[in-house]
Amino acid sequence: MEDTLVYNYSGASSLAKRGVLEELFLAKYSEIHKNTDVPCFFWGNVGQPFILARCLITLSNIVKSSFNLSPFQMVLLKDPIVTAGNEKLRFEGFSHCAGVYARVDVMPDGLEGEFLENGTTNVDFNQPMITALGSIRPNEKIMLSVGEKEVGLYKEEEKIIERKVPLPVKWIKGLGTVQVYLSESEKRYTFNKIQTQQLFRGMPKGVVKSDYYLIVRGNKPVFSPVKSADSVSIGGLHRLRLLEPLLPYIDNMQVFPHADMQSITWQLYMGNIRFTFSLSRECWRGFSGEGALLGSIISDVSDEWIDAVDKYAYANQSFNPSRLALEDNINFDKAENITGRLAAMGLLGYDLEDKEFFYRRLPFKLNRIIGLNPRLKNAEKLIESGKVEILNNKKERTEARVVGTGVHHTVIIEEEKERCTCEWFSKYQGERGPCKHVLAVKKLVHI
């Protein structure tokens, strides 16, 4: 049975009229944030309140959507998280099925106010507040606070608002995995506003069950059911309709496919606000089950290293694995391993524009997060029970036999190639990360 999260908000998020200003107050709560001396992350004016309101409404719609769950499987709304750091605000969330990831980034020149503290927190996204955002008009003045600037400022909301929700395991796992996919994605296309709107107008109606491909003919981007040499694969194309409400306001859109087409990311630019939207490879595949981080977290990294890098990343509010390797004279594999561990622990996000990770500590206890990789735990059980036999271990080739349920599996690892005779590997061919047998062998021989 899933654990339960209890969000204890000091009040409900609200949009209220205070004098000549509209004030958007976002109630925050974190399991790990204990610094009550600074109960507010940011307090100040927003440069593009109308656009921000539209982006937050879209983020709310994404958080409430699902593309592979029945209505009976839908659970209570998971509140998005907000990260304040490097003079930026970042709002993140997932669809219920964890196959759609979205982030709203408000750049420094879009904010005029005080960053009182860096950090990441859940924020209350209640329906009345979201509905009120729809009333914001262009050129209105909006003051935003993430948390209470002063204890007692909102004393009319004395009552603690408690919301119990199932622990969002898919969210927590997906928030690590998607950052790795983003870091492995490269910009392929930039489309202006007209090109983008034409592209979306040509989207097929209804639920799209087969793959579509993004191609450019002349100067015109189109979605085609036919694959071509330079096309970008898109599974579950209809999920893109979640972006349609934002299209009238964009300056341009950029497309970032993953190196192995395991995801595709669409980034909308609207003045000093960016909206990042990532789709998993297919509708039924959430980012939470992809196993992208497993290869990075096989090798143990000491707690001292993790703690030191955590402090380094927090102090700098960014993290570059290559810079870490060069400055601290460690090999790139170890730097990548540390990066994978930090991402798996919810300590890193990735910025496509800056091409580097940014620091954000998920507002969940670390002991919840570390135990969320069942394949890795199963691999460790195989080793502990003596079910892994190394037959050959040379630099260029490792061969092993692993005891399964009524069968022996053969694992062969040659340079960058891995093979296993199990059903999981036969089905996915490594596209969803290594199977538990390959993980066990790699961990045992420290590959």
Summarize this entry quickly:
The chain has helices at residues 49-63, 127-133, 169-183, 193-201, 303-316, 321-327, 332-344, 366-370, 374-384, 423-428, 436-445; strands at residues 4-9, 14-18, 21-26, 28-29, 40-46, 81-85, 88-94, 100-106, 111-115, 119-123, 142-147, 161-166, 189-192, 212-217, 220-224, 232-234, 252-257, 263-270, 273-280, 318-319, 348-351, 356-359, 388-393, 398-403, 408-414, 417-420. The protein has 447 residues and is of the alpha+beta class.
Topology:
Elements: E1 4-9, E2 14-18, E3 21-26, E4 28-29, E5 40-46, H1 49-63, E6 81-85, E7 88-94, E8 100-106, E9 111-115, E10 119-123, H2 127-133, E11 142-147, E12 161-166, H3 169-183, E13 189-192, H4 193-201, E14 212-217, E15 220-224, E16 232-234, E17 252-257, E18 263-270, E19 273-280, H5 303-316, E20 318-319, H6 321-327, H7 332-344, E21 348-351, E22 356-359, H8 366-370, H9 374-384, E23 388-393, E24 398-403, E25 408-414, E26 417-420, H10 423-428, H11 436-445
Parallel strand pairs: 3-11
Antiparallel strand pairs: 1-12, 2-3, 4-10, 5-9, 5-11, 6-7, 6-10, 7-8, 8-19, 13-17, 14-15, 14-16, 17-18, 18-19, 20-22, 21-22, 23-24, 24-25, 25-26
